[in-house]
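Reminder to self: tokens first, then the designed residues, so the page reads top to bottom the way the pipeline ran.
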């Protein structure tokens, strides 16, 4: 299991390290929906004791990312499209507000950062590196939030976004809509720079609805991943 999460510096941070590592692996589909995982194997792989792993498993079960089946083990939950839609709906309400606010707070430095992000997105599309494109997509939205002082809101969106993100990662890995995502990002930036709140809102809504369009094709292609 590959992880970009920082290694724990003390026993008190081991649970957070295990939790964040597993959560990241579930989000990016490194741990696929329905796969069984064991406390013993995770503890050995991450070089920690069983206690923080057990605590992380409990938190992930609370987040509905792990399902504990008595006498059978722990399994990564299947993608729940009802939860995906709930996350999409909440995310739309928050991100529409953020993008409208950004239209009046955007700076030249913000614009430069987002233009650099788009250049990298284009490179990742050409190189078919969907995992890097996934990270840049998330960073693009965080940059918008940062430009108007709503980083905490962006963090809240990220925390509740795992089911949505798993479907998004599946979509990116299937190369369903890379061009559409990139074009939306370009148009969102253009609307923000032009201080056109209504246009920014419209494109953001269209952008976040892409995942709804992809659901049918993805469920047909990967039926065992879905609840």
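Designed residues (227 positions):
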């Amino acid at each position: 299991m590959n992880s970009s999460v920082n290694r724990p510096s003390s026993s008190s941070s081991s649970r957070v390290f295990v939790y964040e590592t597993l959560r990241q692996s579930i989000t990016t589909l490194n741990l696929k929906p329905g796969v069984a995982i064991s406390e013993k194997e995770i503890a050995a792989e991450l070089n920690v004791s069983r206690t923080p792993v057990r605590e992380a498993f409990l938190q992930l079960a609370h987040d509905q990312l792990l399902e504990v089946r008595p006498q059978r083990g722990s399994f990564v939950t299947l993608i729940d499209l009802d939860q995906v839609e709930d996350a999409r709906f909440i995310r739309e309400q928050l991100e529409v507000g953020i993008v409208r606010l950004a239209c009046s707070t955007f700076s030249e430095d913000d614009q430069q950062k987002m233009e650099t992000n788009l250049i990298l997105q284009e490179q990742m599309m050409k190189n078919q590196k969907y995992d890097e494109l996934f990270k840049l997509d998330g960073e693009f939205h965080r940059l918008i939030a940062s430009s108007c002082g709503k980083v905490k809101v962006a963090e809240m969106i990220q925390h509740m976004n795992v089911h949505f993100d798993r479907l998004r990662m599946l979509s990116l890995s299937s190369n369903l809509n890379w061009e559409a995502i990139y074009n939306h990002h370009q148009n969102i930036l253009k609307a923000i720079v032009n201080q056109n709140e209504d246009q920014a809102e419209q494109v953001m809504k269209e952008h976040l609805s892409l995942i709804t369009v992809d659901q049918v094709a993805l469920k047909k292609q990967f039926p065992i991943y879905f609840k």
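The chain has a mean pLDDT of 90.
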